[in-house]
Design brief:
Blueprint (H helix, E strand, L loop, with lengths): L5 E2 L5 E2 L7 H9 L8 H14 L4 H14 L5 H5 L3 H8 L8 H15 L5 H6 L22 H12 L7 H10 L26
Antiparallel strand pairs: 1-2
GO molecular function: DNA-3-methyladenine glycosylase activity; metal ion binding
Protein name: 3-methyladenine DNA glycosylase
Pfam families: Adenine_glyco
Length: 202
């Protein structure tokens, strides 16, 4: 795979990982790197990043609607009230990744999120770096797997009772939710007009 932006089917240059599947093209163009705000929406992203561990993100994208149905749209108060019976229900759901440790982590993370005094949105966005402090990456080799901010965010989440939130997962969350902009410098979507407020995307 090229390490630099590659023209997509429409001729627009994209980050090279984005052209490997149509699902990735849509995700890259309309979601990845755009700010996500709101407790439930960030909770969903944290959960999906945790489920992705050891799997491809494409697998998670293709199962996302099933995950949303299984976890009540990732409503924090609803998931926080799940019981052992819900765990067994989820383990029987062929539409999602049926991993007991990850399912139980989602429920624990909902309970932890429900206890945050200022909410999950405030905690996560507290660790967004100054965008002017980060030069645009030219190739994939310039994109880190972690950052000082992702290490700090992971520690803050763990202190609050979250599971499956190491620095690498936290950095992937920051990339996906627009806390950092890791579209490559010559990617046609790096300069898309994006507000640091809610992008309105699903």
């Amino acid at each position: 795979m090229s390490r630099r932006p590659v023209p997509g089917p429409d001729g627009v240059a994209r980050c090279p990982w984005a052209i490997s599947a149509p699902d990735y093209v849509t995700y890259h163009d309309s979601e990845w790197g755009r700010p996500v705000r709101g407790d439930d929406r960030l909770f969903e992203r944290i959960c999906l990043e945790a489920f992705q561990s050891g799997l491809s993100w494409l697998t998670i994208l293709r199962k996302r609607e099933a995950f949303r149905r299984a976890f009540a749209g990732f409503s924090i108060p609803v998931v926080a009230a799940y019981t052992d019976a819900d765990v067994e229900r989820l383990l029987a759901d062929r539409g999602i990744v049926r991993n007991r440790a990850k399912i139980e982590a989602v429920i624990q993370n909902a309970r932890a999120a429900a206890e945050l005094p200022d909410g999950l949105d405030a905690l996560v966005w507290r660790y967004a770096p100054d965008p002017d402090s980060r030069p645009a990456p030219v190739t994939l080799d310039d994109v880190p797997a972690t950052s000082p901010e992702s290490v700090a965010l992971a520690k803050a989440l763990k202190r609050s009772g979250f599971r499956f939130v190491g620095p690498t997962t936290a950095y992937a969350l920051m990339q996906a939710c627009g806390l950092v902009n890791d579209h490559l410098a010559d990617c046609g979507f790096r300069r898309s007009p994006v507000s640091r407020s809610d992008s309105g995307l699903p």
